[in-house]
Amino acid sequence: MAIQVMEARPDIRDAVVDAIAAFLRRLHAIPVAECPFDSDRAYRLIQARKRIDTGRVDVDDFDDEREGWTVEQVWKTMLDLPPFEPDPVVTHGDFTLDNLLIREGEVTGCIDTGRLGVADRYQDLAILWNGLGHFGPLLQARFLQQYGIAEMNWDKLRFHLMLDEFF
């Protein structure tokens, strides 16, 4: 998995990040009309609310920025973010370093595709960007540059990071 390679081989982190960015660009280039699964904002919000209402959200697993927050605090803060125009692509849905298979510095596959579907590209960008943060801001910046993001939409990023807290 990519996380294991990143931890064990600091000397190839740049190459791995470049390979991940190239893989994600290819995934996001799949025509949305060819994907039968919908995972857009409305769908994900409904699923998140169901998880909240049935007590299936693990508050102990919240990111450091939301440590000590209640589920309802995250929900309200997320919904209070400014609205944004969606940029629909075919997304993995849980694009973490744990879900990417790496061999010899190349992405050879991905696992845990249960949330795959058409959604805003920041669904994947936010989750990966967050994971790369464990290795420092230089790798995060490299990923964005290699993927082709000239300027991060911080509100979209925050929205998708908070949305991910519910899953």
Quick summary of this structure?
This protein is mainly α and 167 residues long. The protein has helices spanning 2-8, 13-28, 41-53, 71-79, 122-132, 137-147, 154-164; strands at 88-91, 100-103, 106-110, 117-120. α5 packs across α7.
CATH superfamily: Aminoglycoside phosphotransferase (APH), C-terminal lobe
Portion of residues within helices: 40-55%
Strand order of the largest sheet: 1-4
Average pLDDT across residues? 96
Number of self-contained structural domains: 1
Structural class designation: mainly alpha
* Largest sheet composition: 2 strands, antiparallel
Gyration radius, in Å: 16 Å
In percent terms, what proportion of residues is strand?
Answer: 5-15%
The first-level CATH class is given as: Alpha Beta
CATH architecture: Alpha-Beta Complex
**How many separate helices?**
7
What is the end-to-end distance? Answer: 21 Å
Question: What order do the helices and strands follow?
Answer: HHHHEEEEHHH
EC number: 2.7.1.95
Organism: Marilutibacter maris
GO molecular function, one term: ATP binding
Domain Aminoglycoside phosphotransferase: 9-159
